[in-house]
Amino acid sequence: xxxxxxxxxxxxxxxxxxxxxxxxxxxxxxxxxxxxxxxxxxxxxxxxxxxxxxxxxxxxxxxxxxxxxxxxxxxxxxxxxxxxxxxxxxxxxxxxxxxxxxxxxxxxxxxxxxxxxxxxxxxxxxxxxxxxxxxxxxxxxxxxxxxxxxxxxxxxxxxxxxxxxxxxxxxxxxxxxxxxxxxxxxxxxxxxxxxxxxxxxxxxxxxxxxxxxxxxxxxxxxxxxxxxxxxxxxxxxxxxxxxxxxxxxxxxxxxxxxxxxxxxxxxxxxxxxxxxxxxxxxxxxxxxxxxxxxxxxxxxxxxxxxxxxxxxxxxxxxxxxxxxxxxxxxxxxxxxxxxxxxxxxxxxxxxxxxxxxxxxxxxxx
Length: 365
What we know:
It is a single chain. This protein has helices spanning 2-7, 14-23, 28-38, 47-56, 65-73, 77-80, 84-91, 98-105, 118-145, 151-165, 179-199, 201-204, 208-230, 235-244, 249-259, 273-285, 319-330, 343-364, and strands at residues 109-111, 168-170. It is mainly α and 365 residues long. Strands 1-2 form a two-stranded antiparallel ribbon. Helix 9 packs antiparallel against helix 10 (151-165) and helix 13 crosses helix 15 (249-259). The relative contact order is 0.05.
């Protein structure tokens, strides 16, 4: 830039040109454009003039969350000249993700203020953790009461103070917040436990928390013990336990997923495939009545259900009894017995069969 200024006849001191370069965020094209515009009136430029012009023409940059996290903890000339407002603006690049990135990565920074002293390092970590906790309290107040005017306060606690305390060298690339994945798993497990508690509600009469803490571990053992000890012969006992607690086959997988701690092997997956197949066959042999619906009730024929139009003709012969009969047939919770053929129907079939035989015999003659 100094060589270009010399060729164009612009007299500018190097510190002034440095202010223009920093204001444009090292953008060569913008620096050339600013020099051309500001030197059109006067070829001699002073430091104060360049500093004021550069501050008014500062380039706005949209940083990603990884760049923001690195800049929060970075040390050097770039961050030394940042004001309190500039440091707070880093938080507002994405105020939802910025606190999570700071919380995930502050442990990986070597603070310059500690000077290599382990005790000083631990004191700084403690103060940073306290500040992050205060920022989390402010965030809860903002989200619960829609108090968005507290965002600058959260920026100080969740970004500015941790950055000032832990400013130094980050020994690795910023890590994406693991809280997002853990929160998703927590919501999934909460839905599974809620479903299990609703299935067992009439038998246990307990809350979702009680089912999770007091029932699932023992239910897992009660289901697995007969399968592990007796193999395929213990499948009937395991199925009977499911019926006693009004559970279905899919609930077994949910119980195994919830009641096993992370990093531990799933005992159900270690069972022999033949035992699992026997358990599934034993369960599917019978119809298991539950107090909650498992199937979607099929709609009746057109005109026979409730979705008929006003212009269609409806038979007037005892409509209530027909509706009850269709409801009983369509209800998935009621077992239907097969009707036994009567003696009269058997005689009619025999007579019709004899007639057909005689006719065929005459036709052959």
